[in-house]
Amino acid sequence: MSDTPGTNTDMNTDTAGSPEAKGPDELPDIEDSDVEKAAQETPRGLPLRVLNLEKRFGGITAVDGVSFEVEEGSLTGLIGPNGAGKSTTFNCITGVHEADGGRVLFKGDDITGRKPYEIADRGLVRTFQIARELEEMTVLENLMLAPRGQIGEKLYRSVTPGLRGEVIEQETEIREEVWETLEFFEIDHLAEEYAGNLSGGQRKLLELARALMVDPDVLLLDEPFAGVNPSLEAKLLEQIHTLREEGYTFLLVEHDIDLIMENCEHIIVMHQGKLLAEGPPEEIRNNDRVIDAYLGEDI
Ligand SMILES: Nc1ncnc2c1ncn2[C@@H]1O[C@H](COP(=O)(O)OP(=O)(O)OP(=O)(O)O)[C@@H](O)[C@H]1O
Questions:
Q1: Distant-in-sequence, close-in-space partners of 271: CB < 8 Å, separation ≥ 6
Q2: Where is this region: Disordered (predicted)?
């Protein structure tokens, strides 16, 4: 875990590890000047800090001044009803959307407005659905294409004989890493299968495997279990917990509340673009605002 709790500024939203859930009443508004101050004071060890994030689409404010932190080595859940702004928040964090306001700090660096590949290259990675072009490639090829720091195919074609040896050496290393990843996710038997032929659950494993090939520090997973059968879901969860024990940090958007409650130690709840509450599962489960807005009487 981060060695930073308690070292944040007075307007922080640092509740990871705090015993009680907090709601909007306890989470003060952040002025622009405070955002600047917080950005400067954010400890470098803190993997992800979102400050006053805003995103509008025409007349819709999809994300409305959201602030939260994700602790190192944590499995943090982001939940909320349909249209709450979860995916838009993910997209703003990872550079897919340009935020209209606020800041995203990654390991103390301001990454707001950076391109997705720059953010991924720094170690903050989200999973993406397998694109159509990738469906026509094998599972092995999908992973071979993912690693960062690779001397690309274009360069390979134009390299001098001297460089070619380096490329081959690098490709051998990548191939070994790819096989290790395939075995870790138990999809090595599918290595030569076209990605387009995989089941929904197997695709989810491949998406996560591809994201891991980028060698991230923090993984953002948007509904990683959608369409995954229970046995594959259990396997995927097991792999996520194993990775977490190895030091990876996860931020997870998921509609299955029970799954989030059972697996995440910290939960962030969004509602109508705003942060509704955050805290440990038992507090979120009993939080009146969350029950009213989202969970219902039977939770
Ligand atoms: N590209 C877009 N253009 C216009 N409006 C958008 C766009 N993306 C999201 N929105 C709107 O922003 C709001 C938040 O959407 P978002 O997808 O972030 O919510 P969500 O919490 O991820 O929902 P869900 O759980 O249904 O996926 C919604 O009102 C949605 O219609």
A1: 80, 81, 84, 293, 294
A2: 1-42
